[in-house]
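Example 4.3 (complexes with small molecules)
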Amino acid sequence: NQPVRILGVGASVPQKVITNFDLEKMVDTSDEWIVSRSGIRERRIASESETTSTLAIEAARIALKKSGVESSDLDLIIVATVTPDMLFPATACILQRELGAENAACFDLEAGCTSFVYALSMAEKYLSAGGGNFALVVGAETLSKVLDWKDRATCVLFGDGAGAAVLGLGEKLGIISTHLGADGGGANYIEVPAGISRMPASIDTVQNRLHYIKMAGNEVFKFAVKIMEEASLKVLEKGKIKIEDVNLFIPHQANIRIIKSAAKRLGIIEDRIFVNIHKYANTSSASIPLALFEAVQENRIQEGDIILLVGFGAGLTWGSALIRW
Ligand code: ACO
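Answer. The structure with acetyl coenzyme *A bound is encoded below.
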């Protein structure tokens, strides 16, 4: 079987920066609290005209350029997101129209913050099963639009952004293994309760602020540390790779304490961990591809390196991918 390779990556974030000091003026919080509890110093926030698709398009254009693949050669577009432009049509279809990728099948995939890893795994399986030659996978979010800017427990933790990867069949290099999982028992730990089938939008849902993210932070924290370790070990076992052979660990950027605890349990040394949470906060499905893009830009990844991606998120979900770059 030919491995599926990441041929090029791209990313895009809004211009507007909101620092912890800005947040101090909006809710009862402090830079000291946010930095010590999460590692976040600032985040990017979309303007009114910026949406998930506009960020996704910019990231996708860069990834296409870097990969040398024409948009008309794409056979598949998956947008991994929990904040699509609209409930339907799929944001992937909007991307297809803007990119002129008329030969691509398009859909969105939602698996909480793990959506990008899920989408990467689905695209890999699709290409390796003969579904086509090239796929575009984009993790894109405008979480600021579903944040309750009066809730200090959540609004300080999230940000907006997008990251994209173009996939194609490789010869030796490429995705070695992926591992995905879920536990619906934790479905109520992170949710946006209203707006669709269970609780359609009404004056009550708006007045009760039910269109915003609700999160049981402590429960998610405990789950995250454990699952980051387990998901990493599973994908290493599947790929028959030892942890000491991993050149770069790119975890979902939700909280520096989660990242450090997971890395410690796994025995990964600090200079092999990629961290950019201080600049962007938790960008959900965008966090891993955005980190991957920056790691490539900063020459932290060389051809042949082993990269370990691992994420977790609402659902609850988790996923990991091992790549020979
Ligand atoms: N500023 C100041 N104080 C705050 C803030 C804030 N922004 N937010 C909460 N507090 C207060 C709380 O009210 C609490 O006060 P109390 O003790 O008087 O009740 C106190 O700080 C401590 O709160 P804890 O929840 O115990 O703080 P903790 O150290 O656990 O950190 C955090 C909280 C950062 C939310 C952590 O639990 C966490 O990161 N959890 C994981 C969240 C996560 O990763 N979510 C993303 C999931 S992915 C997805 O799919 C969306």
